[in-house]
Input
Amino acid sequence: MEILGLDKIRKISDNTDLESDVKGLDMVRAEEEFVNITGLDSIRNIFTNDFPKLSAFAMELLKTVARAKELDTELRQYGASNHRYEFAPVAALSQVRSFEQRHNIKLPQAYVEYLTQAGNGGAGPELGLYSLDELEFRNFYAHSNRNVAYPLAKAESDYYSFPFAMNDIPPLISPYLSEQEWDSACLELSKLDSSSQRDIYENKRRTLYNGILQIADCEHSFCPVLVCSGEMSGEIIEFSHDLDMPKYTGKPFDLWLLGYFEDVISKFRKS
Output
């Protein structure tokens, strides 16, 4: 029997003896190869692995956002008219792993849970959180300082190598980073000519962004950034593309995001 998509998979009775050629969801990629899946147990395993059960963080987040939406009916919170307290459909875990592999990065577990169990972008601080695709475009622009069209950014990503993580250089962002050290690194960058010394300039600029990822659409000078390597991995900092000294929140991603919506609830409960 040939199965052509999820609607037909749902209609099949629970019969593990039934052999099926899955083409729809469509084919399942494993180790860069397309493979056929036989038996409903195998199909169930795909969904279990690619779309895991809700974590305690994801369940609390969904509940908290729903409450914030109930209270802020007129979307008065800054950015709410943009995201409307809604999440985009979740990403598959395989999408997240592919993103990590392409960009030589390990996303913190709480952020992976957000992407795969709550939403692939949407409701959040500022104008909302980025999807995986938006992460690629926005961070490519920020890191390389090149204003190129989104399709071109994706097409050239392997060539230019997004500097989310540089294996040979430890992250500059750390609990021990002093304002003097940061200013010194920025001063070195400012002395370089971004045109005639482009390669040197880009490499020096990337050291400042090493191991961090802007995760929200932001109109302010300081934007929420997720630290993805080093001792502060998993924490949120506020980072300025004008290269002012970063501000540390001291909060991991899950507590930072939950705290934002809890503040919204408190604000509109009183109003």
